[in-house]
Specification:
This protein is α+β, with helices and mostly antiparallel strands and about 200 residues long. The protein is about 25% helix and about 30% strand.
Length: about 200
């Protein structure tokens, strides 16, 4: 009798422990990854190899291209502005406007490269650039899961043509990169507004 009573109590204990309310587990709320943004101390980009100067933050590193695909760059002033703290780069190229590299051809190339992102883009905004220093061009803001969310070109419409494109060095996720993109856009705006031909 005592043995049956112990089994009954044990059975009630297991039933009771199985019925205790546990907190309902909910998925974690979506949030941006924690990013430590570097301090913005502006410095001048200036080199004897390039026909231009501009301002950029001192946390950026300039890495000159030594080869493109199977050959050398078209101009010695092709480089990347690396933003290591945010795992991003701005690929920059420069052309002298000539009979073979015409202004209209270079502009068409810039629109073609920006247009390659239309397949994945949700929206593309084109802003005209016209600075007091006589710099003209177009800024492409491309929204969506694209490889390059910001591209631009700058020219004096006679001799010089400069193109830049922002790339994150990771899988494209617009939700995760949105705060970093906003931060880097101010650097790109500063580059454009301070850009001068020599």
């Amino acid at each position: 009798m005592l043995k049956t009573k112990n089994h009954f109590v044990l059975l009630l204990f297991f039933i009771w422990s199985g019925c205790v309310d546990e907190a309902i587990k909910l998925p974690k709320a979506r949030m941006f990854p924690k990013v430590v943004y570097p301090e913005k101390n502006m410095t001048a980009f200036d080199t004897s190899l390039c026909n231009f100067t501009f301002r950029l933050p001192d946390y950026c590193n300039i890495v000159r291209d030594s080869f493109i695909f199977d050959g050398k760059p078209s101009h010695p002033c092709w480089f990347d502005i690396q933003i290591s703290a945010l795992n991003a780069s701005i690929h920059c190229s420069y052309y002298t406007i000539t009979k073979s590299k015409t202004l209209s051809g270079l502009i068409n190339d810039a629109f073609y490269i920006a247009g390659k992102h239309n397949i994945k883009a949700n929206y593309r905004k084109e802003s005209i650039i016209d600075t007091p220093q006589g710099i003209k061009g177009v800024l492409f803001d491309i929204e969506g899961p694209v490889a390059s969310p910001v591209q631009f070109y700058l020219t004096d419409e006679k001799n010089h043509f400069f193109r830049g494109g922002l790339y994150f060095n990771s899988k494209v996720n617009p939700d995760s990169t949105a705060p970093m993109l906003t931060f880097i856009k101010t650097d790109i705006d500063s580059l454009i507004s301070s850009f001068k031909w020599k």
